[in-house]
Amino acid sequence: MGKVHVDGHDAGAVTLYALSTCMWCKKTRDLLSKLGVSYDYVYVDLTSGAERAELIDELRKFNPDLTFPTLVANGRVIIGFKEKEIMSALGAL
């Protein structure tokens, strides 16, 4: 599946690492959509082989514990669904 791009207004580089079955990951995507920002996301559990290995290596740089959701917004790493932190990182507060 790989990374998927969602169009919206430019809030900088925003990438969400998520699991397709994770309620908090869904809440994070819903918040990003509500804010109308452009972002990329990937459901790590729906990848396999070399693609998954590459994503895990990429994610480990930001979150060595490999927990979800992990949001990287303009270099700022937010682990878990933290609405106020996400909004602040995206300039929505």
From TrEMBL:
Family matches, as InterPro entries: Glutaredoxin, Glutathione_S-Trfase_N, Thioredoxin-like_sf
Parts forming coiled coils: none
Signal peptide (from-to): none
Residue stretches making up the GST N-terminal domain: 12-93
Domain of life where this protein originates: Archaea
Name used for this protein in its record: Glutaredoxin
Provenance organism: Methanothrix thermoacetophila (strain DSM 6194 / JCM 14653 / NBRC 101360 / PT) (Methanosaeta thermophila)
The organism's taxonomic lineage, starting at the top: Archaea, Methanobacteriati, Methanobacteriota, Stenosarchaea group, Methanomicrobia
